[in-house]
Amino acid sequence: MAFVLLTPLSTSAHAQATAPTSGTLTQPVTGTTANGGTFSGAYTVTKFVSQNGQLNAVGTLNGTLTNATGQVVGNVTNVPFQTPVTSAAGSCPVLHLNLGPLDLNLLGLTVHLNQVVLNIDAQSGPGNLLGNLLCAVANLLNGGAPLTSITDLLNQILQAL
User: Which is nearest to 27 in space by CA: 2, 60, 1, 76?
Assistant: First the structure.
């Protein structure tokens, strides 16, 4: 029943997450239905899993669904919920070049540069082909961990909370 209630929701999560108990991470969740109703609750992540090459957060969803007039339509309590982790994309440094002052003499043309700093960062994520490629190449030198290792590390972090 919770799936039917939550299907028409478009949710947006707040930026701050809290960790109320050991081994969990709780994220506030709000959303609106197609007919003007609202959902307000919390998603508690209890572990991370890797399925078909995708990192997923597994936990429970709790909250209240109200209609457009503010009347409570239903409650969601400890509903098992799994969602892909899509915000893991980011940037990775590719090149940092710091040149001191330069004096160039080009056939009578004198060029004085005080300082040149060049930073190139690759943005990884869906649709960023070059950024994904450069981040993957940059991580080859770091011994880039496979997804199962990342999953294990995230679960260890949850246990430490």
Answer: 60
